Every structure is written in structure tokens, then in C-alpha cells.
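== Folding task for one protein ==

=== Format: two labelled lines per protein ===

==== Paired sequence and C-alpha cells ====
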Amino acid sequence: MATFAGLLTSLAFGGMAFFTLVMAPLVFGKLGPDQGGRLMRDAFALYYPVMAGLTGLAAISAPPFWMGALLSLVASGFILAHLMLRPEINRLSDRRADGDAEAAGQFRRLHGLSQMLNLAQFLALFVVVFGMVNH
């Protein structure tokens, strides 16, 4: 089970790194903010459930308790982002595109919160991967 948990955790960690460091800059660089934003909206609709599944399965198969607990928190963060943050960010993005200045400020704050959550999840996965390598 430890090997399975390590594989799933590594897939999630690598997926997050690729999405953040390669996919997002490429999409926005090639398509611009409007088309890129629409594509990323569709991508996030798949990204969060896939990442929640990978980290959730890893959590129930990780041998030391602390790794399973940390992976459970990461999975919960993906579920929270998918069910609560993403829909609200999308709604605010639409209002911002319609010229709503208040929505623009709310969008920036909520988008920043989602970025901080993503960073915390990424760092947690790094800790787990490092812990698995040294376990």
C-alpha cells in the first residue's frame, strides 16, 4: 500500500506542478485573459475532482498516520475549492467581465485565497513525498 500511496501522491504533486508552472502560463500566454480564462475555468472543473481523488485514495493507503492525515486535509481542500471557491470565483469573474467594480475586488480576494490554498496543498504534498522517500 505504501507504494500505491507514493505513486498517487507523486502524481498529484507532479500534476499540480505542471498545471501551475506550465499549463496556466502557456494557456494565458497563447490565448490571452478572455479565452485563456474560459479554458482554465473548464480545466479547473476537472482538475479539482481528479486531485481530490488522487489525494483521497493516497490518504487511505498511506502507512504513517501523519501522512494519511495530511493527505486527507489536502483532499478536503480540493473538495472545498471545487464545491465552494470555484463556483463563486466563476460568478465573480462573470460579473467583473460585465464591468462590476465591486465584483472585481471580490474576485481578486477570492482568487488570491484559492492561490494560497493551492500553495499550501502543494507544500503539504511536498512534505508527504519527502517523508515517503525517507520513510
In short: The mean pLDDT is 95.
